[in-house]
Specification:
mainly alpha
Length: 222
Amino acid sequence: MFKHEKQLLRGVKVDKPNPTYAAMLQEQLGGPQGELKAAMQYLSQSMRIRDKEIKDLFLDIAAEELGHMEMVATTINLLNGDELDAEHATVGTIEAHVLTGLTPMLANASGQLWTAAYVNETGDLAADLLSDIASEQRAKVVYQYLYRQIDDKGVKETIDFLLNREEAHNTMFREAFNRIQDSGSQQDWGVTGDSRIYFDLSTPGGQSFDPAKTQPPSFNLS
């Protein structure tokens, strides 16, 4: 069950309209590393989680990601301004003027529509957590790229908040991963000889290698 509270998770503001940057910020609304993808991924993954605390973690973060999505969409709305002006729009911003009436689209910065193909779920908690850790890391990187390309103080404050929340989610997922070392695909990890061999296939390599040996040197990962 969900409910909508009218206030944003954190207030947003912009110094002035900037339609070009609005189109760039679309990447974090409907792109493969964006907020809608994160919310749908964590919500979908949560359905089969049996650990109640970890299930709640997934659902809580998914709900917050929807709040992030609302913040991003509101910021895009402010950056688009109030006047339809397709005549002076750039190639990347014209859809907002001729298709959506300046309403933020569920699309990335190139105008490609959001797709459920962005969502990863395996039913294995370890695999899903590793995917989510990577997802949060990638989202932070995209926000860092966006942060570097805008001088608008209000927008930068919003992006700074969001990228730091990505760090927080990343940390939570890492802590959850550390709790499940003996479950699912993590069971019996690294107990066979084959799972502990390092193949030095670079020539010249960083490790000493005797070509007379029939096997590359083993590398103890413990």
